[in-house]
Amino acid sequence: MQETSKIWMNGELVDWADATVHVGVHGLHYGSGVFEGVRAYDTDRGTAVFRLTEHMERLANSAKLLYMELPYSVDELKAATWDLLGANGLPECYLRPIAFFGYGELGVGSQGNPVEVAIMSWPWGAYLGEEGMRNGIRAKVSSWQRIGPNVFPHVSKATGVYINSMLAIGEAVRAGYEEAILLTQDGYIADGSGETIFVVKDGVVATPDLSASILPGITRDTIIQIAQDLGYPVVEKQLIRTDLYLADEVFMCGTAAEVTPIRSVDDQVIGPPGPVTLELQTAYLDTVHGRSERWGQWLEYAPSRTEA
User: Fold this and answer.
1) Domain CATH for 250
2) What pTM was estimated for this model as a whole?
3) Domain, as residue range, for 222
4) Domain for residue 1, yes or no?
5) With contact defined as beta carbons under 8 Å apart, do 68 and 115 qualify?
6) Number of domains observed in the structure of the chain
7) Which residue out of 6, 78, 140, 157 is catalytically annotated?
8) Catalytic (active site) residue 64
């Protein structure tokens, strides 16, 4: 991670090295936090944040599901994001808003603990590598199951639940793969360690529905809308492991991963990035970089620039 100048923390901009918390914070001991991954892109009109409002709204909803009262509104968090971008002077970067129960009581219950909120920003390239973006990655179905919907509210992007993903990606990398794919307890495809999965077969784009305990991904929603607008049938349904092996194309998407093709799963070769994947990848990247106006409504610019 490349250090930057400032971090927005609890209402003010502080130096990177000073954005610290006590070792006794509740969120460190029990994973009681929520977060977002957001990207800002350099465009001809200046820096644009992709779907900033939706990301901050999801942060607020994630907090609600953990009975966490955020001390800042969505609008205040958006304003803080622009303050941070201005302070760090990064035309393009990754943003990490996070809220967690802070220092107070250290029992399992969070009642009485303050809620701390911070936003970080730093330069971050292709999450799964530039080579993976161009030619696809190798993925492995994990032995770790995706946490079920009655174990944890999967609609909440909560910090603690990512232990599940950490174990899965660690297993995959140790085995020589770039990413993991998790299945549900019933054996249906869920998602990657931090991405949504799409399968293309006979021109139809399919993705697991929300019953697979997956996060309602903002990039997932973006790709569904783009694919439909481009004329592809899109189906949200239960998918099984062999749907991956026999697919014409498979790709992953997420804020960090953007649109990353998968060239093999469990050493079953799918092949190089196919035409549907490449079309969707190009449309997505053109959109976030401001090169296409077709879905330009998803780009949010600094308020002063918008008003001008």
Assistant:
1) 3.20.10.10
2) 0.95
3) 133-288
4) no
5) yes
6) 2
7) 157
8) no
